């Protein structure tokens, strides 16, 4: 962040405050990461122009603990508490939290900086064998040694220009073959192969493979032409059908592989919201195990976050569903996928629990559900946390099914002039979904009607 001036950061913030574009669009325009732009905006909102000034700080253990205690007490995310305390390294707070949980206050004490004291160097010893005197060597021996050194230098230079890797052992035989072929007019082949550590048969095999023509050259041109003619609307399945209509037999997997190599991808379906951001916090075990049925209310809950897009703006919905009757017992909407969205939803849901009710709360492995504030709120109410396995959306199929119904019956059938209009519509639809929309598996009753009816065998 220090490589950008305060004037540049302030201009970025003014563009965001104008309200015409979001921080992600601004980041793409200026070749920045959206998280950097987001942090500048939060620092400026909390500390003004002083939050944008270059800063180097060393934090004491007491200060670190006060930051963590404030974050836990106010249910703030690491982003929010970093902006509040003007801490530039937004990732250091999660590191402090892990250190405190593993070693207490002592683990937060900063280590001494500076170079460690060097051990005394051992006294040089005389070599066991002295180098031969150049005067005693023949002219041919000196010429051979110079040629060997020239070959080694030339080989390493050309090999290093092929890749950013510093270890020659990481180069494959194809790269070594390319270098040997280029140096072959200047040095003996046997010496080059010995230097490369490659058998002669491997060299000739790689050379023959490199000279072979690309058998998919014509198919690649067809794929690129069809993709361009339809302006990126076709994926590999439709492009496969279009090529077959021209009388050519081609497998869809071949088309998919070639499109991946050409960097071609259908532009019709936009990238979906993904809440997983790596190994943040602690994951909970998969306790629910796809058992989406419950014998009574407030025994099994599921939750997730979904995204809507209206006129270039986004809206995020975070609901909680009771698996007993499919009722949405609490929900929250927000324009940004921040922890406050999930935190507010969770507080609404927990207020509806009776003193002796201890449901299972199931979610995916999104960063919101791995935060200590979220997990601590569940522990205080003795709610058991469950998480889907990584990359397995079927483990939360009940919530995904509700999102599909919501978007099919409501979002896709209506046109919205603004995000506010969509927000009001979602509230009305969820009320309709709970009170009026009947379900076949609930014996023709709505979720609320099913919950309030006396049980009939």
Task: Describe what you observe in this structure.
With 457 residues, the chain is α/β, with parallel strands linked by helices. It has four domains: 103 residues, no CATH class; 70 residues, no CATH class; 46 residues; 153 residues, Nucleotidyltransferase, domain 5 (2-Layer Sandwich), CATH 3.30.420.10. Helix content is 47%, strand content 8%. The chain contains 18 helices and six strands. Strands 1, 2, 3, 4, 5 and 6 form a six-stranded mixed beta sheet that branches. α7 packs across α9 and α11 packs across α13. It is extended and about 105 Å long. The N and C termini lie far apart (66 Å). About 1% of the residues have low confidence.
Summarize the model shown:
It holds the Pfam family rve. Residues 111-136 are annotated as: Disordered. This protein has 457 residues and is an alpha/beta fold.
What is the total domain count? 4
CATH level 1 name of the largest domain: Alpha Beta
Under CATH, the homologous superfamily of the largest domain reads Ribonuclease H-like superfamily/Ribonuclease H
| Overall mean pLDDT | 83
What structural class should be given to the helix and strand makeup?
A: alpha/beta
How does CATH name the architecture of the largest domain? 2-Layer Sandwich
Main beta-sheet annotation: 6 strands, mixed
Total count of strands: 6
Q: Tally the helices: what do you get?
A: 18
Q: What share of residues are in beta strands?
A: 5-15%
Helix proportion range: 40-55%
